[in-house]
Structure formats: C-alpha cells, structure tokens
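Reading a protein record of the kind used here takes only a little practice. The integers have meaning only within a learned vocabulary of local backbone shapes. With that in mind, consider the following protein and its fold in token form:
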Amino acid sequence: MSPLPRKKTAHSFGPLVPLPGSERPAPAATASHPASSDELVNVTIRLRRRQSLNALVSQSASVVKPLTRSDYARQYGASPADMRLVSEFATANDLSVVQKSTARRTIVVRGTIAQLSKAFGTALNDYRLADGRLIRGREGAVMVPDSLVTIIEGVFGLDNRPQARAHFQIYGPVYTTGVANPRAVATSFTPPQLAKLYNYPADRTGKGQTIAIIELGGGYRKADIAAYFKSLGLTAPSVKAVLVDGGKNAPGDANGADGEVMLDIEVAGGIAPGANIVVYFAPNTDQGFLDAITTALHDVRNKPSVISISWGSAEKSWTPQALNSFNQAFQSAAALGVTICAAAGDTGSDDSVGDKLAHVDFPASSPFVLACGGTKLLTTADGTGISSETAWHESNTSATGGGISDVFDKPDYQADATVPPSVNDGKRVGRGVPDVAAVADPATGYAVRVDGRNLVIGGTSAVAPLMAGLLALINEQRSQPVGFIHPSIYGAPTTFRDITQGDNTTVAGKGYSATTGWDACTGLGVADGQKLTRLLTTVA
C-alpha cells in the first residue's frame, strides 16, 4: 500500500525573510497589549504580474486600444503556478483561503492572530489612538518564505491602522473637515452651474458609462439623493453600493464621512446624470483601500470607465509595498482604459505632515493618476461668467495640495512641463502634482445635500468627481473610453485655462506658486470642457 502524501509544512518553503518594502514603524499611539491570539483576521496577499505592462503602458503615449478585462486577466494577471504556491503556503500554515482573483493578483487568507503572526513572522499588538480608537498594529517587516519573496508583492491587513483622510471641507467660520455649519453663508455652485461656467458638453449625460467612487467610511441615503437631484431638475442617477472587506454603506450624520460620500455622488451625478454610479465601500486601511480599487477596476459586472478617489495622505505615511501595489493597480487601469481621478489634498504644501517640509498626497502622486488640485472661483455679477480664478489658499489648513513627489520620478509626459525642483532640497525633480484643477475653496464651494441638510462643501475631493463626470460625458461620445489621458493633455496645454495667481505655501519657505504654464498648485489649469472633448475625441 502506497504511503499517504505528506502534508507540506511551512519549512518546505524555506526560511522566513523580510518582504522588501513592508517595513513599518509602530503606530503613533499607546501600546495596549498583544492582540488576542484567537481573533480571526483576513489578510490580502498581492502577487506579482505574469508579465510586465511597461511595453503596453508607456508614460509617453496613451494606450491605443485598451485591453478587455478577460484579456488582461489572462495575459497580465497572476500566474496559476504562483497562485497555487501561495495557496499551498497558506494551507501549510493552517490559514483558510477565502478568496482568489487572478485579475486582481490577490489571495485573501483567514486565520487567527496566532496563526498569522507565525506565518508572517511578525508580532501584532493592540494600540489605543489619541481619539480612543483601538487598532491593531505591527512594527518592522512582514516575513515571507525565501522561495516566495519574489512572488509576493505585498501583504496587507495584518495592520489595520487608519491610512487616509477624506479631502473635503464644510464651509463655516473655520473650514474644518467634518464640522457642519449650515447657517454659514458662502458663494456656492451646483454641478450644472459649474458645467456651464467650465464649458462642459451640454448634449451628453454620461449615458452608458459607469463612474466608480471609492469610499472609506460614511454612507448615503437614497432619500437625500432623490431630493437633491429633484432640486436640480434632474433625474437622479442610478446609485448602488458594492461592499469590500466588510465595508458598509453606513450613513451617520453630516459631521462625519457622509459629507464626502454625498459630495462625490452629487457632483459626479450632477455632471453626468445619465451615468451609473457605483460606490465601493471599504474600511479605512491600506488593505481596504487597495482592495476597493482593485475590486472596482476588475469589476466585470459594472465595468467602470472612470474611478474617482477623494481620500489620501502624504506619501511618507505609506509603506513602499503599498505605494508599489497601488501604483501597479493604476498602471493596470491605464491598460484597461480606465481613468483614475484623485484629490491632491486640502492643506497645501504641508499635506498635514507637520515636519516643516513640503509633501504631496498619494494616490494623487502616482504618475498614472489624474491629480486634481483646487482653485478659488469668482463669477461676474450676473453669475454667467468667470471674473477670476486663482489657486485656492485661504489658510494653512485650507489650501490646494501640490508639489514634487519624493517617490515617483518625473514622468515622460511632463518632459516639456515647467516642473521645478523640490523646495525641500532644490534638486530633486520628480512627478509634479497636480495635473489639473477646478474650484475647491469652501468659500466658493459646491451646494450639496447631506443627511437632510443643505450645505456648502469644498476641497479637492470635489474636483475628482467633477473631472470623473466630465470624462464620463466624453466617454459617451467615443467608441472606447479615454483611459490614460496624461500624454494627450500635456501635449495640448491650451486645452486648459491657465491659472497664474496664488500659492499653496502652508509651511514657511516650503511651497509653490501659480505661474504661467504648468505649476505645482493648479497643474495645467482648469479644463475647458468643449476643448477637452475635442482633443480626446480626435485622439480616438
């Protein structure tokens, strides 16, 4: 009788070694105690691509013909062999495989804290944040077997500290995220009013397009959506939720993340009311954020052509493995013909870091993301024209983000742009942020409805869905989605109205000024919707 096959052990995969780029400092909090050993946790393991996308997605030219999602999965997803090896590693460590996706290059495993700590060679502890929340954190590198270190791109979910913040500000005596003051008076615009001021196509509604919106908290109420669009005289767009990693459509009140969720839906839908809007809710962790993006990107049912992201944080708050995995996801978006629009931040050149240096916000700083900066917009007396538009800077905590990336090199499409050296050292010329801009100052903000209240909200988080709505209008007119537009728009800067006044300096001596041509406050400027439509339709 033949002996039964012996179960593989973790030892058969080789000794544990540090996973490059996974190093993380302990959370800035008070250590409480070791995490409960029997607590069950899901962890996302991100695998390498089957082959590089670099030949298909160049930073010097738009993708000629986007891949279908099935072709992408087959040619550029994870290989079956890699998926099998990582699954065997999980099983050998008594971890359950609860989800697999070749296209997303993802295997989600589930195990107890004790099992996960052993499998990945890292201690997990509970920490108490300053606001009282209890989180799970780690310090140092994630460990993986040496035989898998070139296969595994990243491991997410062992640590669940908050990763990003929503880039919106509710207008009030002091512009503050999450503080509602409906009695404050501000100049405000509805999305249709902005569409007219910015010369967006009036004969399109975004019909047949899907706009994906990434949210890391909050929720929406259908009654608010119906009431808001009725007040605009528009049919409300189709809005539905997709829940990722236990995320929920959980509306609370206007003082929380609901302001972000409703702003995104109402701005995108107000520009493209004929589009379908799908909101992907996930926890505010690097795992939840990444999984929401890859779920939206590879969603074969809803097939979004534009993804709007209004959450982010300074580059230095991310691990290298996260920066790499997110950036690779955005490169995949370019190959699939999906445009990623992301807010550039709301606290100027400091980006809320506080170390007396300038910083840019990620994911806006990815070279494959359309980074959206902010302006202050004033109209003529009759409200039908623009009298002035400057870089948004009202205070050190209310100003457009922008600057020079410390992580990503200057992309080819910015070769002819006047990207200056970083003000931090006067030498590094990296990826310049933002690419485009539109109104973001809360004092000249967006009239929206949140949890039964009519509010005025600003922030670059409004510019991302505004641009997503415009691109949905353009996609409706084309035979294929516009996708990665950076090479096209940088080759035709007169498509944008140049913003030449203002600055975003929110830390002494470390900031940038608006100037003629591209600048690190408003990028190329504000898009003329008709010109951009002609440019991108001609490119097709």
Q: What stands out?
A: Residues 1-11, 179-185 have pLDDT under 50 and may be disordered.
